[in-house]
Amino acid sequence: MNLKDTTLYKFLIVLLAIASIPALFGGVMEPDGALYASMSKNIILFKDWFNLYGRGADWLDKPHLTFWISAASFKIFGMSSFAYKLPSFLFGLLGAGYLYKLAKDIYDEKTGLISAVIFLSALHIITSTFDVRAEIYITTFTLASIYHYYKAHQNSFWHVVAGSFFAACAILIKGIFVLIPVFAGFIIYWLLTKQYHQLLKPKWYIAILLIFVFITPELYSLYTQFDLHPEKIVFERTGVSGLKFFFWDSQFGRFFNNGPIKGKGDISFFLHTTLWAFLPWSVLFYTAVINLFKKKNRIALAPESIMIWASAAVTFLIFSLSKFQLPHYILIIFPQFSIITALYLRKLSSKGLKTFFIIQNIIFILVIALLSVLAFFFGFENPYLIIGIMLVVLAISFLLFKGILLETIMARSAFLSVGLMIFLFVFSTRLF
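Now predict its structure.
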């Protein structure tokens, strides 16, 4: 297929978006999806937007915004899985848009488009559209905040306001730890480039103040539901403060494993999680990270690249050291992963292109073979139809996109993700 490279990448973005649409019409997955959908439904049924209830009891595990967004969609479109999934789908596309804008402004349009393709085709982004993870919202809000704060360097006050608004939205999805991927990159970038004066500029302190202003609806909700009612039984005890849980136990308590919700951390967890979660790009991503350790490979990149690397590295390290770990947490820094991978792809030599051309083709064939085996041996209806469609996707991508080129690697990898979407969104939903 002879298309201008930027036209090809735009085509792939549209294709990936269209291929995601069938996910909107599938059922809601257990356990989290069904629980969150029922909690959002209760908001509408009881006309109570400030008190959250799950499993017949007061709910304190997560902040309100995820449920407010779903409830607003229910209010507009009615109670259905489509209404529940639509906001997640749209926010995923919005995240890709912000990723394109950020990479385009720091580097160029082609890097922005490649980053967006990588992001939309990453396996865990695909499954999160299917499963409706709150992390899709967090990813978009943190990325939007980073973009607007980056633009705020140009002394636009409205970008400060927008950045703080989106940072507050991220907090209202998960908690204050989401400020780590937002601010860590900027602070390390300023320190390494000796822009110490940035740390003293009033606009950044105004930004922090605005964040607290924007999260006041959450603080009010928690205070009225829990702090005013110490007699309520939460986490099998009374006297639980909603505000204390929000600012400390929910985040620091999980990190240090001394809060009401505990886990068992493994420092290597996100290293191997990324291997499957960022498919089909994980091998390229890890190679790109190793490549960045060589100083000569960093010299030609824009200084703002430090902001991207630092945001990803600090967040990844915090997640790895945490005692409470879940695979979908890593989604929050997939935009940074996408930019790092895109930059590496763009600078590959002909030898490097040939190597990864082979690797990506092997990944493609192995994944298609695995999906075919799953379809045949695990009770799917019409397994031969599924296998046939997977083979057609493989054949089309290999026939349309030829040659050891960056465009070929991008297109075939994106088509692999399209095949995964067809498998997940069209056929696997019939198993549940």
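The longest strand covers residues 53-54.
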